[in-house]
Write a structure and sequence with these properties.
single chain, mainly alpha, Dipeptide-binding Protein, domain 3, 2 domains, two-stranded antiparallel sheet, two-stranded parallel sheet
């Protein structure tokens, strides 16, 4: 599944061409810790030659016995993400695998996530502010062994050790290299593939003064202690 994804197509279809490709950490320039494009493209499934990636995926699926008569399971969370589910299904077909999609409502989806009742969980974004600013919460809560938000049940002692190493590294450049090492390991293990990072916008009236919008998300920065109305 990782090799067959065409992330640029997802951006064009679901984001109207507005979005960025990234891994576990939000990509630059908005993300401080994400891999630059030239490094990101060296990860499995991130290469720009989609046909080559899918040919490799097809061979893997054949060796594992998958094909039209042996389906893999994939789930989306609610009606708002129907396009994402359909696109994943379309992407899976070139890899010689059928994708069975379940379409639960939000309350049922949350229960499925808690019960680890899915082989593939697809989301466009997840707590972008943490993925942009703080590598430890982003990877610790979602990829460390036994973490509550580790919905796929991924567990790697090596990744857990790397998470601790980057947390204690005072040099920013060295710490970033460790974070990128974590990114590579997660991509190689297909821990929880990131589809893409969408763009969002905020609008306000001209008489709303004093507010500076953050550049890497719209989920915080709204304390408004310096804002005022000129009307």
């Amino acid at each position: 599944m990782v090799l067959t994804l065409d992330r640029r197509a997802f951006i064009d279809i679901l984001g109207d061409g507005q979005g960025e490709i990234g891994g576990a950490m939000m990509p630059p320039p908005a993300g401080s810790w994400g891999m630059p494009p030239e490094v990101l493209q060296t990860l499995p499934g991130y290469g720009s030659d989609v046909a080559k990636n899918r040919a490799e995926a097809r061979e893997i699926m054949k060796k594992l016995g998958y094909g039209p008569g042996q389906a893999a399971r994939g789930d989306r969370d609610d009606a708002q993400r129907r396009g994402l589910s359909r696109s994943v299904g379309a992407a899976d077909r070139p890899a010689e695998g059928d994708l069975h999609r379940r379409h639960p409502q939000r309350d049922r989806y949350d229960a499925m996530v808690s019960d680890r009742d899915a082989q593939g969980l697809c989301r466009r974004r997840d707590r972008q502010r943490e993925r942009a600013r703080r590598p430890r919460p982003a990877v610790l809560r979602e990829f460390s062994c036994g973490a509550e938000r580790n919905y796929t049940g991924y567990c790697s002692a090596e990744v857990d050790q790397l998470i601790d190493r980057q947390s204690s590294e005072p040099d920013t450049a060295k710490r970033k290299q460790i974070v990128w090492e974590i990114e590579r390991k997660l991509a190689e293990d297909a821990a929880r593939p990131a589809i893409f990072y969408p763009m969002s916008a905020a609008c306000w009236q001209p008489y709303f003064k004093g507010h500076t919008m953050m550049v890497n998300g719209n989920y915080n920065g709204w304390r408004l202690e310096d804002a005022w109305l000129d009307k």
